[in-house]
Amino acid sequence: MDVYSGWKQPSWMVDSKRMRMTLNLPWLLSALTLLHLTIQAHSLKRGAAQDLKCTTKNMHVWDCTWSASAGVSPGTVKEVCIKDRLNSCHRLESTNIKIAALSPGDHEVTINYLNGFQNKFTLNEKDVSLIPDTPESLNLSADFSTSTLHLRWNDRGSAFPYPSNATWEIKVLQNPSMEPVKLVSFNTTLSGQDIVHHWNWTSDLPLQCAPHSVGIRWYIDHHRFSGYKVWSDWSLLKNISWTPNSETNVFPQDKVILAGSDITFCCVSQTKVLSGQIGRTFCPLIHLYGENVAIRIQNISVSENSGTNVVFTTEDNVYGTVVFAGYPPDVPQKLNCETHDFKEIICSWNPGRPTGLVGPRNTDYTLSESISGKSVAFKRFETLTNESYRLAFQMLPGQEIHNFTLTGRNPLGHAESAIFINITERVVPHVPVSLRVKDINSTVVALSWHLPGNFAKINLLCQVQICKASSEQEVRNATIKGAEGSSYLVAVDKLNPYTLYTFRVRCSTETFWKWSKWSNEKRHLTMEAIPSRGPDTWREWSSDGKNLIIYWKPLPINEANGKILSYNVSCSSNEETQSLSEILDPQHKAEIQLEKNDYIISVVAKNSAGSSPPSKIASMEIPNDDILVEQAVGMGKRIFLSWHPDPNMTCDYVIKWCNSSRSEPCLMDWIKVPSNSTETIIESDQFQPGVRYNFYLYGCTNQGYQLLRSIIGYIEELAPIVAPNFTVEDTSADSILVKWEDIPVEELRGFLRGYLFYFQKGERDTPKTRTFETGHSDIKLKNITDISQKTLRIADLQGKTSYHLVLRAYTHGGLGPEKSMFVVTKENSVGLIIAILIPVAVAVIVGVVTSILCYRKREWIKETFYPDIPNPENCKALQFQKSICEGSSALKTLEMNPCTPNNVEVLESRSIVPKIEDTEIISPVAERPGECSEADPENHVVVSYCPPIIEEEISNPAADEAGGTSQVVYIDVQSMYQPQAKPEEEQGIDPGVVAGYKPQMRLPINSAVEDTTAEDEADKTAGYRPQANVNTWNLVSPDSPRSTDSNSEIVSFGSPCSINSRQFLIPPKDEDSPKSNGGGWSFTNFFQNKPND
Amino acid sequence: MDLRAGDSWGMLACLCTVLWHLPAVPALNRTGDPGPGPSIQKTYDLTRYLEHQLRSLAGTYLNYLGPPFNEPDFNPPRLGAETLPRATVNLEVWRSLNDKLRLTQNYEAYSHLLCYLRGLNRQAATAELRRSLAHFCTSLQGLLGSIAGVMAALGYPLPQPLPGTEPAWAPGPAHSDFLQKMDDFWLLKELQTWLWRSAKDFNRLKKKMQPPAASVTLHLEAHGF
């Protein structure tokens, strides 16, 4: 029981091994540990375990071990016997034994000890574990450029029965201390020979970035071996590491990768890396080991031309690499191979999606032809346009079928497309060159051109494009037998003589593929031929009837067939034929002196090729008396005429026309209409609106032309440009007779349809009557539609009234200008007499009645309107005042010099006068007339008021507490400086600086020069004090010595003057002041009234 | 009136001075050798023109190299590009150079730089860039010829290229694309510094070769006007 239970242990191991197949390594290790602990626990339970364990490395030899029973030392083993084998007992003294593999089935194994103790086991192959040797002979190499590891090892298959399956497991560790980055297992078959196996692995991280280690283990599965298959031990790790060099520190270098993929860059550095960036984008650093770092780029975008830079920055340096992200070549699209000349085949294609790789990584193309085995390569360094992708393949003589394969290759892959062609069906000839034209006759030319290439085996299909000057195009095909490098010739017929043609040619082959490009154009003028018909002829007799003028029209170019050089005109009668000398081309009329007999006029046109058939016309017309003149109006520049068919007219109809205002013979132009026509539209650039034309329709018979109809017409009617000239024939008291004249045809500009006559009351030059406004109620209008009427009587008018008459003519083109006239009707005498007598009678009656009334009420009128008036001379009251004024000898009247006296009133209210007297403030200047009796005669100043333009203000006595005198505004004579109205603003001004006039209130007083009591009093009084400070004036006079030093802007120049007077406000003292004498005063003295003057 | 009289005298004096120095003006002095002055001026002008041209070329080329080469603050250490002639020199050393040495250094530097530029042109992947580079190479060739002309006029021999010193600029397998770009970057930078240095060199030479009369004229002009 113990034994069997002991042999169950391997089944745990097998179980664990089987589980390992699906579970990972850590789990396996845990399981093994658990298993070992379990075995230990079993042994302890049994007291002394005697488990027999057998393993094998190669299935040939089993290595069995067991543990000695309790109390039995291992050295006491005597023999081990296997029951069903010959010589099955092996003497030994240890607890392990190597035996040859036993056949399948149970085998009893007996272990005998020296002490007689015996253990028996049942041994079966199923209980044996096959644990191969650790793999050896490992060879690990690395391709750093591709970050690929190459592992090579020997399977030692010769040591095992074959065929056996071997399962390998390889682990890659990026750093010895880290978990494996790659663990891979795969199967091989042992074939009885030693075989070297290879395993390659490409790392995401460049191998230079970190040391890499590789380990390997395996187990063997043989179909005849029913025991346990157990992994071998891991081999010793093989290491790969990169030896840094000084130049390159960033990996991978110059790598070409597929756009959109992920890539890791690492930087091998001894110093700390500060940042890593791709292009302009900084990436988070992944620390590898040491100072080595990496950045991971996901979904990399297509690079620019020079690649994408990856840069790592350390404290003292910059390391980097360039990555080229792009695409493998797209399948070449629209691959097309064709030949131009059967010498080389040009294959062109579209490269499809751009690869994003240029320079040495650009896509190389190879064009190979499988039948001939030849190939050509296409390699370009720089980027190209799509049209540039073409390759020339030299043709082999005789080879028509070609099987081309175009392969595009770049570092990321390759793509190809193929085409199978018969080259004779893919011909695009070169552009035909050296196109020449040669005349054969006037309607046939020969075209020749050169076509490079060898077309000897095929037929060419060429197109000739023929363009006339009138942009008419024609394309003719021609099939030509091909030749090598030859010129080709075709004849082009059915051309018009003397016509400028433009030829060009292109070619293809009969098995059409593509046309060549058109050749250059060649212009050619075909040869001349004789004119195809005679010119269109007409004739008119001169006004005196002695000469016949023959007109003909130049032939159109398609009928002239050349340049017309001259015309021959001849006239023939029954008796004679008269020819004129040659008439050179530009002239298209001739005059022959003829009698009015029947002649046949013949006109022939000549060019360098010959003469045209003659064109004939009879000199005389067939008379027709039954002619009516009709009217017609056209539209635009054309006029429509129609007529009834006349079977007598056998040849044709001719319509001629002329300007009606021209003198005879009048011929502007004519047209011929076939005899079967009954209508025509005449169109001419010469037609002008508003001009009257005469149209004549002639019919042609065998005898000659006959006038059938005469029509006057306008292309377009316009309004008349003049008004009808009208006069007043007769005027009465109630009517006016008006007469007018016709308007000349040239000025009528249309068919006259009538007249409009307006009239209304109105005087000449009255604005109302100058123009007539339609719809005005006063205007009377008469529409005269009878154009033969030339007079009009206007009745029912008022006598002796001015009337405004207006007359206008009109056509369908509109109203013409107006002609107006003012007419006064004659007086009505009876009415006038009545109109005078009635007012006179009324006036007499009124006067008589008034006189009577006035006489009767004369007393009342006197009292009311003329009361008695008292005589002023009897008034005693006025005598007193008169004597006072006359008695004062010193009193002078107001002087008038030099100003206009006293247009300005100095108003005073009566209440002010006593106030002034009380305060004894008396202005030395502004003397009032009412104070004259109280004034000191010596202090009197003669004041002359100069009235300025400035408005005078009258002070309000109630508001002006300072004294209530009239406010006077002063003005500087020269500067017209006006003192400020606000006295308080002047308070801060230094009186020495502002030395001008200080009006009124706060004049500074210099006590040194005060000598009058009035001036003393003025200190206390805030009244009007002009001229109080005499020194102030003197200091700043312009002629004073100090005046030049003054820098004040408010310097008073001269004396100020009251605005109410032109008197300078200078006191009489100034005359005594030595400072005031100067030239500067000379001008102002003119205006100063001195007391002694 | 005094002021006008002074003006007239000043102009007259200036006119006399100009007439006196007319024979010294190279353009008018047809009889004698004009000396190296005009060719130095031309070389100086060409240097300034190349400076201008390089600004445009460098912008295009650095954009072609891509970031961070075209970023204004990119200033890597000059580790590679050891074969490029260095333009930077100590100021004292530069002052101590004589004219011959200066010109020789300029000539040698541009000879090398031209070779490198031609190599650059071969690698450029866009046609536009190739055109710009070829145009600049032509101009640089002109500058080289101009320097040779100045040296010949001054009587200095042209430096002989040492055998085996031709720079091998072709990208080898050991030279990574990034290092190549660094070299290109430094080539443009050295070119810029060299052109700047040459402008200084030729300006100095120009002043040195100018006849002293010119300064007198300038002085008088400043005084008179």
From TrEMBL, chain A:
Xref: Gene3D superfamilies: Immunoglobulins
Polar residues bias spans: 1028-1063, 1082-1093
Family recorded in the similarity comment: Belongs to the type I cytokine receptor family. Type 2 subfamily.
Name under which the protein is recorded: Leukemia inhibitory factor receptor
PROSITE patterns, alphabetized: FN3, HEMATOPO_REC_L_F2
Keywords: Cell membrane, Disulfide bond, Glycoprotein, Membrane, Phosphoprotein, Receptor, Repeat, Signal, Transmembrane, Transmembrane helix
SUPFAM superfamilies membership: Fibronectin type III
Cited function: Signal-transducing molecule. May have a common pathway with IL6ST. The soluble form inhibits the biological activity of LIF by blocking its binding to receptors on target cells.
Main location: membrane
Residues covered by region (Disordered): 1011-1093
Localization of this protein: Cell membrane
Molecular function GO labels: ciliary neurotrophic factor receptor binding; cytokine binding; growth factor binding; leukemia inhibitory factor receptor activity; oncostatin-M receptor activity
One Pfam family, short name: LIFR_N
Record-annotated Fibronectin type-III domain positions: 431-529, 531-625, 720-829
Biological process terms in GO annotation: positive regulation of cell population proliferation
Subunit structure: Heterodimer composed of LIFR and IL6ST. The heterodimer formed by LIFR and IL6ST interacts with the complex formed by CNTF and CNTFR.
Automatic annotation (TrEMBL), chain B:
Function: In complex with CRLF1, forms a heterodimeric neurotropic cytokine that plays a crucial role during neuronal development. Also stimulates B-cells. Binds to and activates the ILST/gp130 receptor.
Major place of residence: secreted
Subunit structure: Forms a heteromeric complex with cardiotrophin-like cytokine CRLF1/CLF-1; the CRLF1-CLCF1 complex is a ligand for the ciliary neurotrophic factor receptor/CNTFR. The CRLF1-CLCF1 heterodimer binds SORL1 (via N-terminal ectodomain); within this complex, the interaction is mediated predominantly by the CRLF1 moiety. The tripartite signaling complex formed by CRLF1, CLCF1 and CNTFR also binds SORL1.
Gene3D superfamilies hit by this protein: 1.20.1250.10
Subcellular localization: Secreted
Manganese is among the record's keywords: no
Signal peptide extent: 1-27
GO molecular function terms listed in the Swiss-Prot or TrEMBL record: ciliary neurotrophic factor receptor binding; cytokine activity
GO biological process, one term: positive regulation of isotype switching to IgE isotypes
Annotated keywords: Cytokine, Glycoprotein, Secreted, Signal
Protein name: Cardiotrophin-like cytokine factor 1
Family under the similarity heading: Belongs to the IL-6 superfamily.
Species in which this protein is naturally found: Mesocricetus auratus
Cellular component terms per the entry's GO annotation: CNTFR-CLCF1 complex; CRLF-CLCF1 complex; extracellular space
